[in-house]
Structures are given as C-alpha cells and as structure tokens.
Amino acid sequence: MATEKELSDFLRSVERRAFKRSFYQVRNEESALDIVQDSMMKLSQHYGDKPPAELPMLFQRILTNTILDWFRRQKTQHALVSNLSDLGAAGSEDDDPLEMLEDLLGHEGTESAQDSLERSQTLKILESSIMELPARQREAFLMRYWEDMDLAETAAVMGCSQGSVKTHCFRAVQALSQALRAKGFLR
Fold first, then answer.
1. Is pLDDT of 145 > 50?
2. Residue 67 CB: number of other CB atoms within 10 A?
3. Three-state DSSP class for 117?
4. What is the rounded distance in angstroms from the CA atom of residue 162 to the CA atom of residue 143?
5. Cβ-based neighbours of 146, under 8 Å, separated by 6 or more
6. What number of H helices and E strands is found in the chain?
7. What is the rounded average pLDDT for all residues in the chain?
C-alpha cells in the first residue's frame, strides 16, 4: 500500500508531463490544469491505497478518461450553446505550453541568442504539428514518446490493442515527418 508520502511524490513526479499531455489534447491551459487536478484527486481518493507500482498505470488511465470526459462535456455544451444562440465556444491559445522547457533541458544561459531563437522556432513548429494530429494519433504519440510508456501500457491506457497503438504511432510519426519536411526541417 502506498504511503501518503509515496503518493505525494508520485503525483509531484508526473504533474508537468500530465499537464503537457492534457494541454496537447484539449488545447486550453485552464482546462488542462483542471483535468490534471481532477485526475490527481481521483487517484488520491479512489486508489491511494494501491501499491506504488500500480500508480503510474492507474493515473494514466484516469487522466485519459478525464480528458475524454472533458471532450464529451465540450461537445454537449457546444451543442446546447449552438442550439440556444449564435455564441460559439471561445478559447485562447496564445499561451506557450513549452514555457518551462529551458528548466527541463537545462539550456538557460548556455546557448547563443541565435541558437535559442532557432530552438524556440523549431519547438513551436513541432508543437503545432503535434496539435494538428488526429486525437488518437496524438494520444498514442504523446504516451509512447513523451510519457515514454511501453507498448502494452499505452494499449491498456488507450483501451485498444497493441497493434492499434503501433498503427497510430506510425501514422503520427509519418504525419510529423511530412509536416517538418514541408517546412524545411527534414530532407
């Protein structure tokens, strides 16, 4: 059984990656923060007594389900709003989801301004390319390559076969390669 400290340490270790994954899925910073907070609360309340080794898979599954619930609510809200008025769902995507990248990579103050600018531009192009992927491809890509989950874990979290995960990842990598090649980053 996980102690309170083990649970707290686990949640602290996954919070940034969970936020990034949620943000890439929902494309709204406040919603992504809410999703991560809700997921952490659900894990703590319902599964805090599980062994520490089970927490990563449980959390990933809870996070995935919370994201899906968010999309369902948005679809319902959008349908209600569009039926009742001409108002649309508004959302701002002006915030930079990679704002803490320098801290993560440890490049702060160690590269030239030109290198920093080129890296920043490349990351923005990569981020926008990831966000243009279909939802299932983006989800599989982020879990496999961002979260570094293995094939079986990703399949379990996504609720599909390992073959489907491979297909989604392959298509995501192909689409990203084409997008980056079109923008002159790959030959």
1. yes
2. 23
3. helix
4. 13
5. 17, 20, 21
6. 8, 0
7. 81
DSSP symbols for 96-109? -TTTTHHHHHT-TT
Tokens of 66: 């919370």
Task: Compute the distance between CA of residue 165 and CA of residue 172 in angstroms, rounded to an integer.
Answer: 10
**What average pLDDT does this structure show over 25-48?**
93
| End-to-end Cα separation, the chain, in angstroms | 51
CA atoms within 13 A on the CB side of 98: 15
The residue length of the chain stands at: 187
Amino acid at position 85, single letter: S
Q: Quote the Cα angle for 117-122-128, to 5°.
A: 125
Q: Say how far apart CA 129 and CA 131 lie, in whole Å.
A: 5
Query: In the Cβ-directed half-sphere of 16, how many Cα atoms lie within 13 Å?
Result: 9
